[in-house]
Write the structure tokens for this entry.
Amino acid sequence: MTHRPDDALTPVFDRAGEATRRPRDRFPRTPELPETAYQIVHDEMMLDGNARMNLATFVGTWMDEHADRLYADAYDKNMIDKDEYPRTAEIERTCWRMLADLWHAPSVEGAAGTSTIGSSEACMLGGLALKRRWQHARRAAGKSTEKPNLVMSSAVQVCWEKFCNYWDVEARYVPVTDEHPVFDGHDLADYVDENTIGVVAILGVTYTGAYEPVASISQALDAIEQTTGLDIAIHVDGASGAMVAPFLRPELVWDFRLERVHSISTSGHKYGGVYPGVGWVVWREEKWLPEDLVFRVSYLGGDMPTFALNFSRPGAQVLLQFYLFLRLGFEGYATVQRGLQKVARHLSHGIGAMKPFELVSDGSDLPVFAWRMRPGYTENWNLYHLSDRLRMHGWLVPAYPLPDDMSDRTVQRIVVRAGLSLDLADDLLDDIRTEVSYLDKLQSPMPVEGTGPGFHH
């Protein structure tokens, strides 16, 4: 009996495809057995490392087994097919209304919102709404709509740079400094004018995890309006903090309790707890989402209003978000976030106690913290070298420069997410101590060629 070279009877690693090299830049001519194709892809994935040990990313890497089952049940649902999947569409609406309630919208029924593929798309939509409302107001007053600008911290996530680039908006960055380590409304009058479409406030700076004081920024804009008449709105980029602050610091006023906050975005796949990718954006009132940005199309037999940059996208993550809202509730989320903060504070205390380091932040806001080398500690190694050494243990702990006026400072950062237990945290501290001890014994400087940030904001 003659068998094909890639036959189920042939041991998997001796089959064509495993035992031979396939060109990476040509479309394959012949099929493989599913077991062979699976093994090839699985082995490629294996080289990525362990996602649970990636302390660079904010994106969730763990969910419970019930969520995994729901994910498998719903992987084929297209979020945009709202006529075909009406219950998924209704669940999407339920989720953003729950967020409107969590963020103290004056009326949940009067709010507006949508899911997105992630918090970056949510920021894009929030920015588009700000720009379009500014354009409408300028045209109604008979004024030019040229040269719009958006004011934000120099520590914003790169999605805001993309927004300004893609939609022809001037980005005006307020630099972070030693005196003002976060954007707090200082000197804001120097940056805003009649062409300012809005101000972005970050609830959880990606560099350090610190919250920008939204209430202080709002007060600064109130003072500007009193002297200039400029009524400028705020978009809160709560990619991480909007799913942490309500549970750990409910007294902190940063959300729709401030009338100047027109919209808030967050990432469901960060501290919302869902696998990638889902984000959310909610407007305080429907009037802040211009109607001409909402498309109403006939699709698969139904009328469908949509405001999104993506059309077809997974519905599974929306269902997973609903699952977590039901599974945890307010008290459950508070328990989870307190646990993450406990781990973050434990790690920051341990690292801050090590002689080479001083903390830049300690996990008091987000369960995220950063540290830097003590000035003058050594010339033989730096944080990039420590990051490389930790990779040998499987840990991804990024080192990178701070933005703009503080770009001469290099920091290292840990993001604590679900799945990083206190036991694992102790293992990480032991590995850091081991590598610091190794580096401190060097008799001459480590080479600096090839070192640099491997993580970008």
Remarks:
- Residues 363 and 369 are 5 Å apart (CA to CA).
